[in-house]
Amino acid sequence: MQRRDFLKTMGVATGASLLPFLKYLPAEAAGRDDTLVVVVGNGINSLDLHRQGTNRPSYQVSINIYDRLARFGVKTLEDGTLAYDSTKIEPEVAESWTMSDDGKSITFKISPKAKFWDGTPVTAHDVKWSFDRAVSLGGFPAVQMKAGSMSAPEQFVVVDDMTFRVDLPAPSKLALPDLAVPVPLIINSKVAKQNASESDPWATEYLHKTPAGSGAYKIVRWDPGQQFVYERNDAWALGPQPGLQRVIVREVPSAANRRALIERGDADLYMDVPAKDAKELRDGGKVKVDGAPIDNCLHVLGLNVAHKPFDNLKVRQAIAFALPYEEILSAAAYGRGKAMFGGSEATPSSTEWPQPFPYKRDTDKAQALLAEAGFADGFETTLSYNLGLAAWQEPTALLIQEALGHIGIKVTLDKIPGANWRPAALVEKRLPMHLENFGGWLNYPDYYFFWAYQKGHLFNSSNYENPEIEALVDETLHMAVEDPKYAENVKRMIAIAFNDVPRIPLYQPYLDAAMQKNVEGYAAWFHRQLDCRSITKA
């Protein structure tokens, strides 16, 4: 498409709303074999994942511009879609590693091929400084490291310049995979220290806008709220050389505009496509739609037990029997989700997670439970949802409002802007009834329970506390799957979740991306962000 045609088409189709896009991105960029144009709904707010307040979209930056000791492999699903493989861990900066006989330390040999952008070698000193930083700055990164039994700088040991060791308090199945998630990125410590200060010893202000990595791509431009641009690091030698010279990621808030751009060929890739658009784009056949169920992830209705009457078990169970699950799956997921309701077992017989909960819509049962709880006439409450996720949360909220009205619960909807959601729902945990989503980065059920069912943890937005869950998670989190007690403990956790329902699962969502037919190598990742390294254009 010629630029004059692009301007004419966009002017007719969507008007002035796309003019900022034209200002920063020539239309011809989407047609270049060496350039990928990506459209997303939410942009990044930092180039430093360790920084307090860094948002989820920013995680992708750390994936593409920083390296880690190890990375997950990729597998091909039955329908040909590529997805990460939680069972396969491959070398990245570490060319090899060995586990001690007692399982309490992992020793890594640093690859001589690992070089920072300034040409200096990556050393064990850089790894230690970076890991010390991750556990010391607090917030989400520190808790993520703790999930892998890494919480103190003393655990990270420089054996020599090219040998690094992690010491663990006890053997843990999560330690090695936790080193392949976005958080334990490796920073050029020499550059960072040169830009640190007494008041900012970890160079958070510098690294916020000026990364110092070794990854396959570099950031060469960032216009907050508009776009950022990756350029390939041609010296990167820790894997196959990426096929794209340049990746332009444009923030386009309107889902309708993102869809228009991908359908007209003026964008190459559209990340995190709403379910309705994914279905229609797939059915239309003009572009490819790749997607897979997100491992260890659920869309849920959260009931905050710190707010009455949700502290009442029978009230929570009544709501679980009142929800219009089938309608939600149809109206919000458009079939792009796995049902997590109507399970046949009240007591789980397997450790599969997620698995369907034993609830389906039964208004009579819901009313009876509500009466037993002392609320035969119902009550009034508020249902909060995230406007940033309105594509699935708004229709879901409306259906829940209507369904609960049938059992006497009067629901007022509370729409919260996306920028305000995390503090209200996850940090302050002050929303009585709310829609929420969490997906565990490490594909184990006990890891999900660690984040979403243990008291005080970030994604336990329901303020749920159960001493038995606390003990089970603490005992099981680092336990080997082969341990006979592992399955027993996990099934007991799931049984408690079945019964107590502080989080009522609605469905397991898909992560869908739409792309032009000449785009190859896109893979769905647990972190739900873009990994540019494997993508090519014909």
Explain what the structure shows:
- The chain is an alpha+beta fold.
- Helices cover 32% and strands 23% of the residues.
- The chain has 18 helices and 21 strands.
- The strands form four sheets. Strands 1, 8, 9, 10, 11, 12, 13, 14, 15, 16, 17 and 18 form a twelve-stranded mixed beta sheet that branches. Strands 4-5-7-6 form a four-stranded antiparallel beta sheet, with helices on one face.
- The chain is globular and about 70 Å long.
- The two termini are 17 Å apart.
- The model is unreliable at 1-24 (pLDDT under 50).
Looking at this protein, list some descriptive labels.
four-stranded antiparallel sheet; single chain; 32% helix; alpha+beta; disordered N terminus
The SS-based structural class is alpha+beta
How many β-strand stretches? 21
What is the helix content? 25-40%
Characterize the largest beta sheet: strand count, sense, and whether it forms a barrel.
12 strands, mixed
Low-confidence stretches: 1-24
Give the overall average pLDDT. Answer: 92
Alpha-carbon Rg, integer = 24 Å
Shape: globular
What distance lies between the first and last C-alpha atoms, to the nearest angstrom?
17 Å
How many alpha or pi helices?
Answer: 18
Content of β-strand? 15-25%
A few lines on this structure:
With 538 residues, this protein is of the alpha+beta class. The chain contains 18 helices and 21 strands.
